[in-house]
Fold these 2 entries.
Entry 1:
Amino acid sequence: MGFVNKRFLPRSLHLFLLFDLLLNTAGGEAAKVPAIYVFGDSTADVGNNNYLPENSPKANFPHNGIDFPFSRPTGRFSNGYNAIDFFAIHMGFRRSPPPSLSLSNKTNHQIMRGLKGVNFASGGSGIALDSMGSTITMTKQIQNFAMIKSNITARIGSKTADHLLSKSIFLISTGGNDIFAYYSQMNSPNNTGEELFVTTLVSKYGDHVKELYTLGARKFGVVDVPPIGCCPYSRSFNATGGCIDKMNELALGFNNAVRALMRNLRLTLKGMKYSIGSSYEVVLSIMKNSEALGYKEIKTACCGAGKFNARTGCTPNATYCSVRHHYLFWDMLHPTHMTSKLASLAIYHGSQNFATPINFKQLVEDEV
Ligand SMILES: *[C@@H]1O[C@H](CO)[C@@H](O)[C@H](O)[C@H]1NC(C)=O
Ligand SMILES: *[C@@H]1O[C@H](CO)[C@@H](O)[C@H](O)[C@H]1NC(C)=O
Ligand SMILES: *[C@@H]1O[C@H](CO)[C@@H](O)[C@H](O)[C@H]1NC(C)=O
Ligand SMILES: *[C@@H]1O[C@H](CO)[C@@H](O)[C@H](O)[C@H]1NC(C)=O
Ligand SMILES: *[C@@H]1O[C@H](CO)[C@@H](O)[C@H](O)[C@H]1NC(C)=O
C-alpha cells in the first residue's frame, strides 16, 4: 500500500474502518503487525521518564532531539530517533508507539483496539533494579501493559484481543544498567561471583518473558546489551582511553546466557517465537568498519563536556558536534540517530551474525 491521500478515503463507515486499520501507520506504508509493545531502559524510552520525578534520568531538553522532526526534545536519549523508532519504521509505522504515561483516555482509539501499541520503557531501569525509586521497573512496565491489555479486552473482547496480541511484536531492550550497577560495586572480582550475577539476572529476565507470555505475548524481539565498556562514559575511566574490558566481558556473558534462556523458553512456551538482535555485534562491527561507514569519531560523545564529552550528560549548556552522523555516540552512554539506524537495519534485515535464530523481519513475517 502506497501513499494514500486523505481525500481518497471512502465515506462508507465499513470501508472507513477498514482503511483506518490499514492506515494505522498514520501515513506511509501499511503496518506489517497489529502493534508493537516496548519494554526496557533508556535505549528504548521515548518519553516515559518525562512524567517521573526530578531525580529520574531524563532527556526532554536540548540538545537531545536536535535532529528529531522540529528539533523537538521528546525524552529520547538521542539526537533523533532511537533503535525502537527504526524497528517500528521497518514494521510499517511512523515511529515508536507513544509512551504509556502519555496516554489519556480520549485520544487512543487505535491503541485501545489493539493496534499501534505502547512503549513502556523507562530510562535507568533494569531487569532486576526493582528497588530503584526513580524509574519504572520492568515489573511495573509489565503491570502497565496488563492494564492496557484489560482496556483492550474490554473494548474488543478477549478473543480478538488475544489474536491481535499474538501477532504483535514485543520488543525488550534492557540489561545494560544491571551490568553497570554490578560493575560499580564489584570489590573482589572472581568468576564465581560473576557467574552467579549473570545466572540470577537471566533468571529474572526469564520471569519477565514468561509473564508477558502469560499475558498473551508470542513474538519477542530481544535486543541484547551492547559493548558498554566502550561507551564514552566507560572509556573516560581508562587512562589509555581503551574500553573497560571487564564490562564487555560481563555483557558478553549476559548475552550468551540470554540466548540460552530464550532457546529453552521456546521449548516450554507453546507458540512462542523470538529473535535476538545483537547490538553487541553491531556496535563492534561499526567500531571495526567505522571509516567505511562514514564515521569520524567512535570514542568521544557528540554532546557533553570533559574527557570524551563523558563527564556530564547532554544538558542544555553542554557542547555538541555539528555533524552528528560522524559520531558513533550521541552522549556518554547512548548512540546517535545514525548508529541506531544502522543497528536496526542490521538486526531487522541482517544475517545470523546480527540476529538469531531469525532476524526481526522473519519474526514479523512468521505465521503464529
Ligand atoms: C480516564 O477514565 C477513568 C475512568 O475510566 C477516569 O477515572 C479518569 O479520570 C479518566 N482520565 C482522564 C485523563 O480523562
Ligand atoms: C484503562 O482502564 C482503566 C480502568 O478502567 C482506566 O483507569 C485507564 O485510564 C484506562 N487507560 C487508558 C489509557 O485509557
Ligand atoms: C566473589 O564475588 C562475590 C560477589 O561479587 C563476593 O561476594 C565474594 O566475596 C567474592 N569471593 C571471593 C573469594 O573473593
Ligand atoms: C584500558 O584500555 C587498554 C587498551 O587501550 C586495555 O588494554 C586495558 O585492559 C583497559 N583497562 C581496563 C581496566 O579495562
Ligand atoms: C550548566 O549550567 C549550570 C548552571 O550554570 C551548572 O550548574 C552546570 O554544571 C552546567 N553544566 C554543564 C554541563 O556545564
Note: Residues 31-277+351-365 form a domain with the Rossmann fold fold (CATH 3.40.50).
Entry 2:
Amino acid sequence: MSEVPSLITLCIGAIKNAILDENGNLPYVYKLPSELFDRLLPHLPPLALQNLQDAMPSVSSNDYWFSDDCLKPSRKRKRFENFDIAWKALYKSRWSVIQKLSVDFLPEDVQQDEPITNWQQIYWEKHLQNCLDAAAEMVSITLFDGCLGDVEIPDALLKYISYEGNLSRSRSYLKLAYHCERFGLYARCLRLQSVHCVAEIGHLLRKSRLEFLEVHWIKSKEQVEGLCKVLEQNKETLASIEFIHCKLPASLVTAICESLHVKDFETNVIKNFSIKRSSFLDSSYFPLPLGLESLLSAASGLTSLVLSDNHMWWKTAKMVFDTLLDTDSGLQVLDLSENNIAGWLSHFKWGSPSLINSDRQIDKYLKSLRVLNLRSNNLQKDDADCLKYAMVYMPNLEVLNLSDNPLQDDGIRIFVPYLVKKSKCDIPLAELYLDNCELSCHGASQLLKVLSALNVPLKSLSIGDNHLTSKFGPSLGKFLLSGIQALNVKGVGLGSSGFSDAQEEITEELSLVRINISDNCGGIRTANFLSKMISQAPNLVSVNASNNWMPMESLPTICSVLKAAKGKLEHLDLRQNTLCNKGNIASLLAEFQINGKPNILLSSPAASIVLYDNDP
Ligand SMILES: *[C@@H]1O[C@H](CO)[C@@H](O)[C@H](O)[C@H]1NC(C)=O
Ligand SMILES: *[C@@H]1O[C@H](CO)[C@@H](O)[C@H](O)[C@H]1NC(C)=O
Ligand SMILES: *[C@@H]1O[C@H](CO)[C@@H](O)[C@H](O)[C@H]1NC(C)=O
Ligand SMILES: *[C@@H]1O[C@H](CO)[C@@H](O)[C@H](O)[C@H]1NC(C)=O
Ligand SMILES: *[C@@H]1O[C@H](CO)[C@@H](O)[C@H](O)[C@H]1NC(C)=O
C-alpha cells in the first residue's frame, strides 16, 4: 500500500469522499466513463457503495442509462454484476468465510453451482446483526436506559462501513437507529436479545421483511409486547421463529402465538416453530398454552416443531401430539428431545383400540411426519410399548431418535415387532438412534439379528455408548453384512477381541458408507479390523477410529489401509491413538493421500496436527 498514488487513484479517492458525503451529485457518477466507474467500485467502502447504488438511475428513466450510447442492456447487466462483485469482496473481507474457503479452490464449473447469493443483502443483514449485538452488549455493560435507537455503535463497526479514522463526518450513523432504518430492509434473518425487545423495536425494524427470527432470553410482558409488534409486521414473510433461553408463562406464549396467526394471517407462512432451553412457567395449570394449541391447529404450513429442553412434562407432550393428530397436521419434524415426558403416550395403549392387532381403521394420521426426536426423555420400557401403538399413526416416519433413554433390553424387545412391521410398509424406517439406552450385549445382539432379517434394511443405526462388551464382536461383524450404510458403535467396549471377532465375520462385500468405532480400546486389532473392512467396503467414505489405543506397530497396517482406500475414503479420524505420538506421522500418512483425500485427523501430545484435504 506504499506505492506512489496514480492520477486515477487520486481521482477515485476524491470521488469516494464525495460519495460518502452524499452531496446530491451522485447520479453524475453514473456518467463517468465505464473504465473509471468500474475501477471505482472495488475501492468504495460499503457505505459509499450503498449510497452510489441507491442513487442508481432507475431503469425506466432514460436520463442516465440511455443518454450514453455505450450503456446497452448488456452493459447495464454488467454494471449490476460489478456491484455484486464488490459486495461479495466486501463481505468476504469483513467476515472471511473460513469454513467455505475450500469452495474457492474448486474449479470454475463447480463453483457455478453455488446458490445465488445476494451479497449486498447478506452484507447489511450481518452488519445490522453486529450492530444489534454490540448495542445489546453496550446496554448490559453500561446499564444504558435511554432509547434503544440512541445506543451508539462502536467505532470498530463503523470503520468497516466507512473506512474512516475520523468519524465526525456525519453523526447520524453513530446510532443504532440509523443502521436499523437504513439497512433493516435487507434483514431476512435476525437474532434478538431481551434488551432489543422494547416497544421501540417495531418502529426500528419497520422496513424489514424477516423470514427467520431467533429470540433469546425474553421473559417479561413488555418484552413480549415489543416482540409481538415485530412478529405482526413480518406476518407475510416470517417462516421460522426460534425461542432460546426464554421464560414464558402460558399467557405470554399465547400472546406470541396469537400475533403469529390471529389477526388475518396467512396460516401457511410459518414453517418452523421452536422453543428450546426455555420454560413454560406454569405448565401444571396450563399444560398446553391455548395460543400454542390454536397455532398448531391453524398453521397449515408448519413443517417443523421443536420443543426441546423445556422442562416439559408428559401432559404437555401428550396434548401437543393429540392436537397435531386431531388437526391432520402436515408436520414433518417433531422434536421433543431433552424433556421428561415418560408416560406421554399411554393413552394409545390403554385408551384406544389396540391398533396393531386389529383391523379397525384409523382415520387420523400424522401423514407427513418423517422425523421424531425423543432423545433424552427418561423413556422406559412402558414408553417403548406405548410408542409401538402410537407409531401406527405415523406411517411415513423415517428417522426415530430414542437415544439417551433408559429403555434397556426389555424396552427394545417390546419395540421390535414395530420395526418388523414397519419394514414391510411403503416407507420403511431408515435411521434409528439408540445411543446410551442401557442395552446389554444380549439385547443389542438380539436387536441386530432382527434388523439383519428385515425386508428393507435400515440405512443408519446408532447404538453407541451402550455397555456391549467384547462379546458383541460376532454380532457386530454379522450385522455389517446386513446392508447397513451408517453405523455408530462408539464406546461400546469392543476391545481387542471384539474387533478380531467382528473381523472374522466380514466375508462378503459391505454396503457401509460411514462407521464410528471410536472409544473402543481395540489396540492393534482396530487397525486389522479397518484393513479387512476397507477391502470389503467399496463405498466407505468416513471412518472414526479415534481413541482406540492403536499403537505405533499398527502404522504399517494403517498405511496399507490408506493404500487400499485409493483416495476413495474421505474422512479418517485417528485422534487419541498412541500412533499419533510418532514424530513424522502426518507426513508419513500424507504420502497416501490422493488429491488430499482422505482428510486425516491426528492429534499429538503437544499440539494437534490436522491434515486438511485442501492443504495448500
Ligand atoms: C475530522 O474531519 C473534520 C471535517 O471533515 C475536520 O474538521 C477535523 O479536523 C477532522 N479531525 C481529525 C482528527 O482528523
Ligand atoms: C425449517 O427447519 C428445517 C430443519 O428442521 C430446515 O431444513 C428448513 O430450511 C427450515 N425452513 C425454513 C423456512 O426456515
Ligand atoms: C439423534 O441423537 C443423536 C445422539 O444420539 C444425535 O447425534 C442425532 O443428531 C440425533 N438425530 C436426530 C435426527 O435427531
Ligand atoms: C461418529 O463418527 C462420525 C464420523 O465418522 C461423526 O460424524 C459422528 O458425529 C460420530 N458420532 C459420535 C457420537 O461421536
Ligand atoms: C469421532 O468420535 C469422537 C467421539 O468418540 C468425536 O469426539 C469426534 O468428533 C468424532 N470425529 C469426527 C470427525 O466426527
Note: Residues 103 and 111 are 7 Å apart (CA to CA).
